[in-house]
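We modelled the chain as a single entity of 281 amino acids. Its sequence is:
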Amino acid sequence: IYLVTCFTQTKPFAPPDSFDGIGVCGWILVSLSFLLVLITFPVSIWACIKVVREYERAVVFRLGRILSKKAKGPGLILVLPCTDTFIKVDLRTVTCKIPPQEILTRDAVTAQVDGVVRYRIHSAVSAVANVTDVHSATLLLAQTSLRNVLGTQSLAQLLAGREEIAHSIQAALDSATEQWGVKVARVEIKDIRIPMAMQRAMAAEAEAARETKAKVVAAEGERNASKALQEASMVLTESPAGLPLRYLQTLTAVAAQNNSTIVFPLPMNMFGSLGKKSTGA
């Protein structure tokens, strides 16, 4: 329909080589292909109609040049035989695993880190025209960005700040893949593996820190207990009848724990009288 309108318009027709840049020979080939479709209609219509799914877009090439700056689809699209070719691009989110990368942290610790990156193609034309294999290129760039970003972090920062590091990697990937029509949705650090010697050293350090904390807590408890005993002795000193009561309470607790034990309570003043007799003798 477009070709018939161009040939029947009253104003002067633009030079063929100035439209889409296919040149005079290109327009001749396109016209012959269009005439071939008309001659073999309706059989040829089955070769011209293509179906593009909802999550796909088709980039159509006419004589090697992209037909439009915007991809076609979804639904039915028309292509001319012999002159038109098309490439389907999947726009769904892709999740790929970053293989384990051996890195050297800022504090000279060797570690193996792997992760997951999620991205999607938002411009099918850029993904086809600007890069050979957009998925392979994105994965390789994710590996390189992971190594570059983690190489500037210490082991403690690597273990504690995974979320911030993931955001840094995502920002680096976004800026690099923008010209490919790729939008990075999320980057996550999956696992961090360090050598066994470093694990044993970290375990020993953690155990020593725990023991130090336990000793401090025990010393604090002893100090509080000594203060409580001091206050209790002062109370018992002010009340002479309180010491026998405390003695009886202790005997009750011992009898409840060991029923077979026989205890003979003796008054405390008896020890005092015995001491005086030995002194007089």
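As a brief sanity check on the tokenised model: The chain is about 50% helix and 20% strand. Residues 27-90 form one domain.
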